[in-house]
Amino acid sequence: MAYTVSKLKEYSANALDKAAEKLLAALEKEAAEVKNESDWKGFRDRWMARKNGVLTQVNDLWLKAAPKDAKREAGQKVNELKQRVEQTIDAALERTKAGSGKSDAIDISLPGIQRSIGAEHPVIRTANEIVSVFRNLGYSVQEGPVVETDYYNFEALNFPPNHPARDTQDTLFIANQQSKPARDRLLLRTHTSPVQIRTMEKLKPPIRIVIPGKVHRNDPPDASHSPMFHQIEGLAVDTNITFGDLKGTLDHAMKALFGSSVKTHFRPSFFPFTEPSAEMMVSCFICGGSGKRGSEPCRPCKQTGWIEILGCGMVDPNVFEFVKDNGYDPKKVSGFAFGMGADRIALLKYGVDDIQLFFNGDVRFLRQFA
Ligand code: 2NL
Fold first, then answer.
1. Model-level pTM?
2. CA angle (158 as vertex; 156, 163 as ends), nearest 5
3. pLDDT digits (tens, 9 = 90+) for 18-45
4. Separation of 198 CA from ligand 1 center, angstroms?
5. Residue 242 has pLDDT above 70, yes or no
6. Which of 70, 146, 220, 334 has the smallest set of CB atoms within 10 Å of its CB?
7. Is the C-beta atom of 194 inside 6 A of ligand 1?
């Protein structure tokens, strides 16, 4: 039950002390129940209100009602109590402030700390999309080292000894390799083709594989070149693989990637590791092949209506010679291969005009793809 002030029956020192003790006990108990500012206001008013506050009642019932000869002692006691009440009320307010402010209090109504979650890089996302088109055709994914030997990067791919790609002009070589035989010297792979050789050494035909990965070339960076970029290559080897298989497979892949209305077109080309070789064009998926966007010329296809998308060809029998012992006899098997730049396709897909934006790590750019 809440504490109430009652009249004193007598004014002996003992009686005054007892009454004061009871009051102070009630004061402490109520102070301990003050949790916030609104509690505190109620507490303060109950004890301090001029009209009917506990102290006013003490004044009326204990002091004013005291007989003349007890006034002095009762007055002292009541003053003492006033001070104690004021101190206790002040301290209670301090406690509510400390509790709602800094210190160890937790405000569960504040929003939590937001950690931004990462997202797939647009080039990696594009590479994954391309890989998944081929996975759906039954191709499996292979990966291999970025630091390669001259043998896997050039020799086994039918590059002649003095091919310009083997020059420091085009290739980034690892330092201090001169003491090794030429074929063992290390370099940064310039294409993912070495992984295809490594896979043919490991797995007997028939095979269907795709290889995504980082490659390096000694090119100065500009809007369309980066010394590091991403290639995806594919290889199918079996008995009786023809150029028709190559065309059908790649036509299907382009329709899966860019929409069923795109057309493909092949024109002759040259690669050391394929014969015959071709460049594949896909009808411009920006302007629909018209070369125009409204009255403006279409920039991605340079108004031609066609975009050069990949290189491909039938695996050169000279390449099979290097893996003949594992079942790749060029008299018995044939195959097609293709390679494309994931970065270039991402540029086209997202309408980005500078490849450097993909790699200089500006989150304001990258956040647009999250
Ligand atoms: C391009 C062209 C190509 C290949 C890559 C290949 C690999 C082996 C044998 C034969 Cl092991 N060919 N790969 C073939 C034709 C083209 O890439 O322009 N890439 C960006």
1. 0.72
2. 115
3. 998 999 899 899 888 988 888 899 999 9
4. 14
5. yes
6. 220
7. no
